[in-house]
Automatic annotation (TrEMBL), chain A:
<feature type="region of interest" description="Disordered">
    <location>
        <begin position="1"/>
        <end position="98"/>
    </location>
</feature>
<feature type="compositionally biased region" description="Basic and acidic residues">
    <location>
        <begin position="152"/>
        <end position="162"/>
    </location>
</feature>
<feature type="region of interest" description="Disordered">
    <location>
        <begin position="216"/>
        <end position="260"/>
    </location>
</feature>
<feature type="region of interest" description="Disordered">
    <location>
        <begin position="125"/>
        <end position="180"/>
    </location>
</feature>
<protein>
    <submittedName>
        <fullName>Uncharacterized protein</fullName>
    </submittedName>
</protein>
<feature type="compositionally biased region" description="Polar residues">
    <location>
        <begin position="216"/>
        <end position="226"/>
    </location>
</feature>
TrEMBL record, chain B:
<dbReference type="InterPro" id="IPR039425">
    <property type="entry name" value="RNA_pol_sigma-70-like"/>
</dbReference>
<dbReference type="Pfam" id="PF08281">
    <property type="entry name" value="Sigma70_r4_2"/>
</dbReference>
<protein>
    <submittedName>
        <fullName>RNA polymerase subunit sigma</fullName>
    </submittedName>
</protein>
<comment type="similarity">
    <text>Belongs to the sigma-70 factor family. ECF subfamily.</text>
</comment>
<keyword id="KW-0731">Sigma factor</keyword>
<feature type="domain" description="RNA polymerase sigma factor 70 region 4 type 2">
    <location>
        <begin position="129"/>
        <end position="181"/>
    </location>
</feature>
<feature type="domain" description="RNA polymerase sigma-70 region 2">
    <location>
        <begin position="25"/>
        <end position="92"/>
    </location>
</feature>
<dbReference type="InterPro" id="IPR036388">
    <property type="entry name" value="WH-like_DNA-bd_sf"/>
</dbReference>
<dbReference type="InterPro" id="IPR007627">
    <property type="entry name" value="RNA_pol_sigma70_r2"/>
</dbReference>
């Protein structure tokens, strides 16, 4: 705020004020004895109690608004320490309280799904029995393997298992199910692959009764499967069975008489089927099958009898 | 605290929590304020009014905005405390506060020269004593304008802002106060 200048005709007032001001100022600094301190003490003296009361009030005012305090007004309680956020404890509680029930629930769902799946396969007619495809090969091994291994690593073998896998969100490519890994066909090796970690051991104990039940049902189904196969087609000599499936890991894979859809057989089984047709005197059928086999497996080595049959068929 | 620091800076610092800033402010202004109260209301209540004025300043610190001079802000508070004191004493303001005609100014609320402290009466410097006596005999409004000019160091316009009166009124009061003081000193 700027000091307003008085008009020129008020110069007399200013001069008088200046004179009075200088005189009045002396009243603050001079006493009758000429002692400035005494005069000042008289005019400006303030009881120390009044000073203390005012200054204390000023300090209290700052203390009542701690959010505005500066560093000069220290908090008697000391600097406020930030409250540590408990992060690890809830996580541990979550792990211990949620993970185990979830794992248990997953095991129950998986076991129930497999149980009903086996029940359905045992009670429903199975058209694949006459022509077992690679997808249906070794059902026992697949199921036992699926119990001893994580679900994501096991390939669903039937439509029902695909549905169950889809429900669990672990559906695999159906094309992958056409090649069942040989390792899964070995129950002993599959059992050796069981997780023996401390956390998995209780789960495996819970699963074991289900696995035994399913394995028993699978054995029954395999026996039924063999009985039906024996009635459908004459069995090949045992020597021939061993000869036609040298690299096969499954005995069921070498059952040519079980399949009418020869194209779905393994190359060796298909050749065995063609040889049986030839022995039965159906040379034309055997030749036709052999040509199809040749088209399907052009890289496979051709046995001598098959080569001879092919040559005889090509010559008029 | 640095003596060159302005009042406004100190008040802002105190508003923001700096207690030392208030100590500096109080040390700068307490003498003038207590003298103002001694002249206007007497020694008996001067310190009480001083305490009340600074307590109001403390309570109003969060509302302080450095848009005006702190001096104007402080003396407005000081005067309002005095006005409240007048109202408590007589239930009405001194008549001179409402009168603008200097010739009809009354002398209500005057601190009689006889009420001055004996130590002051004993001053050998008669001129100074006379001046103080003359100031005490001034009408309240004229004395207030004079004291605000001399004690607070306010300009005419600042006094007008503090008292809420017009610039011309303050100037007129000052003129008549000076006239009476000069006349009294010349008569000595």
């Amino acid at each position: 705020m700027s000091k307003q200048q008085p008009p020129s005709h008020d110069n007399d007032l200013d001069d008088d004020l200046d004179a009075l001001s200088s005189l009045y100022a002396r009243t603050h600094t001079e006493s009758a004895d000429g002692d400035p301190e005494q005069a000042s003490a008289i005019d400006s003296a303030i009881d120390p109690a009044t000073d203390n009361a005012i200054l204390a009030a000023a300090r209290r005012e700052l203390g009542s608004a701690p959010h505005l305090q500066s560093a000069q007004t220290s908090d008697p309680r000391g600097p406020k320490q930030p409250t540590p956020t408990p992060k690890t404890a809830p996580r541990r509680r979550w792990r211990s309280s949620v993970t185990v029930p979830l794992a248990g629930a997953a095991v129950v769902v998986l076991s129930t799904t497999l149980y009903f799946d086996n029940q359905q396969q045992l009670t429903q007619p199975q058209p694949q029995l006459e022509a077992p495809s690679p997808a249906l090969q070794a059902p026992v091994e697949v199921q036992s393997g699926s119990l001893s291994q994580p679900r994501a690593k096991s390939e669903p073998q039937t439509r029902t298992e695909f549905d169950a896998a889809a429900e669990l969100g672990t559906a695999a490519d159906p094309a992958e199910s056409m090649q069942a890994p040989a390792t899964m066909a070995d129950p002993i090796r599959a059992e050796q692959r069981q997780d023996t970690s401390p956390t998995a051991a209780p789960l495996m104990q819970q699963v074991k009764p289900h696995a035994e039940l399913i394995e028993q049902q699978s054995r029954q189904r395999q026996q039924t499967f063999k009985r039906q196969a024996d009635t459908l087609a004459p069995a090949a000599p045992m020597a021939e069975r061993k000869a036609i499936a040298p690299g096969s890991t499954s005995a069921l894979q070498a059952e040519p008489e079980l399949s009418d859809a020869a194209e779905s057989l393994a190359p060796e089984a298909w050749l065995l089927r063609i040889q049986q047709l030839l022995q039965q005197g159906d040379q034309a059928g055997a030749l036709a099958q052999l040509k199809q086999w040749r088209q399907r497996y052009p890289q496979q080595p051709l046995p001598d009898w098959a080569q001879a049959l092919l040559n005889s068929g090509s010559t008029p | 605290m640095d003596n060159q620091t302005t009042d406004e800076t100190l008040m802002q610092a105190y508003r923001d929590g700096d207690y030392a800033a208030f100590e500096a402010l109080y040390g700068r202004h307490k003498a003038a304020v207590v003298r103002f109260y001694r002249r206007q209301a007497g020694d008996q209540v001067a310190e009480e009014l001083l305490q009340e004025a600074f307590l109001r300043l403390i309570g109003a610190r969060l509302r302080y905005q450095p848009q005006a001079l702190f001096r104007t802000y402080l003396w407005t508070l000081v005067r309002s405390v005095l006005v409240d004191h007048y109202r408590k004493q007589s239930r009405t303001l001194p008549a001179s506060y409402q009168q603008t005609d200097p010739d009809t100014l009354d002398t209500d609320g005057l601190v009689e020269s006889e009420q001055l402290e004996p130590s002051r009466q004993a001053c050998r410097d008669q001129q100074l004593n006379r001046l103080l006596q003359l100031i005490a005999t001034l009408p309240t409004a004229q004395r207030e304008a004079f004291l605000l000019k001399e004690e607070a160091g306010l300009s005419v316009s600042e006094i007008a802002a503090v008292t809420g009166d017009s610039f011309d009124t303050i100037k007129s009061r000052l003129r008549y106060a000076v006239k009476k003081l000069r006349a009294g000193l010349e008569a000595l």
